[in-house]
Write a structure and sequence with these properties.
Elements lengths: L2 E6 L1 H5 L3 H11 L2 E8 L3 H7 L9 H8 L4 E7 L3 H9 L12 H5 L8 E3 L3 H11 L13 H4 L2
Antiparallel strand pairs: 1-3, 1-4, 2-3
Helix pairs in contact: 3-4
The structure holds guanosine-5'-triphosphate and magnesium ion.
Length: about 150
């Protein structure tokens, strides 16, 4: 089954949105297969956002991601990469639809509270960057049969 990397950024943690964000993925029916609280180093944040290193906001972005604890997670389920991004909303929160996480809880593009992998390759790379293979769990839930035909 498809898996994606989701992170609650330092602003989401500071603002007390951990439970709210986890609840949304849970209630959708997605399955949490890995989770930990981490304070990334600047170097690690640069690795995570490696594809953006030429952008003018790269230094601010990586300073921010490494500024405090982050909730790193892997969520599993049909369509979770693309649909997870839909639940997160557009990059700039004021362009995000109401009902999305960024639309409901954020204002500034540089304080948009959550990250989600943008495709299957990125998901694979980000999961491997943030987690050891043994930290990813495979398990059955009783609700699986009520979620999938
Ligand atoms: P992530 O899930 O965090 O990767 O966001 P995204 O995929 O919606 O956007 P992208 O990967 O293009 O950018 C990564 C992060 O850089 C965004 O979440 C923003 O916090 C930040 N960012 C992107 N574009 C801008 C910008 O134009 N200005 C500033 N200040 N920050 C930006
Ligand atoms: Mg991105």
């Amino acid at each position: 089954l498809e898996r994606t990397f989701i992170a609650i950024k330092p602003d989401g943690v500071q603002r007390g949105l951990i439970a709210e964000i986890i609840a949304r993925f849970e209630r959708k029916g997605y399955k949490l297969v890995a989770i930990k609280l981490v304070h990334p180093t600047k170097d690690f944040a640069e690795k995570h956002y490696d594809d953006l290193k030429a952008r003018p906001f790269f230094n601010g972005l990586t300073d921010f991601l490494s500024s405090g604890p982050v909730v790193a997670m892997v969520w599993e389920g049909q369509g979770v990469i693309k649909y997870g991004r839909k639940m997160i909303g557009a990059t700039a929160p004021l362009a995000s639809e109401p009902g999305t996480i960024r639309g409901d809880f954020a204002i500034a593009v540089g304080r948009n509270i959550i990250h989600g992998s943008d495709g299957p390759e990125t998901a694979k790379d980000e999961i491997a960057l943030w987690f050891k293979p043994e930290e990813l769990l495979t398990y059955k839930k009783e609700t699986d049969k009520w979620l999938y035909e």
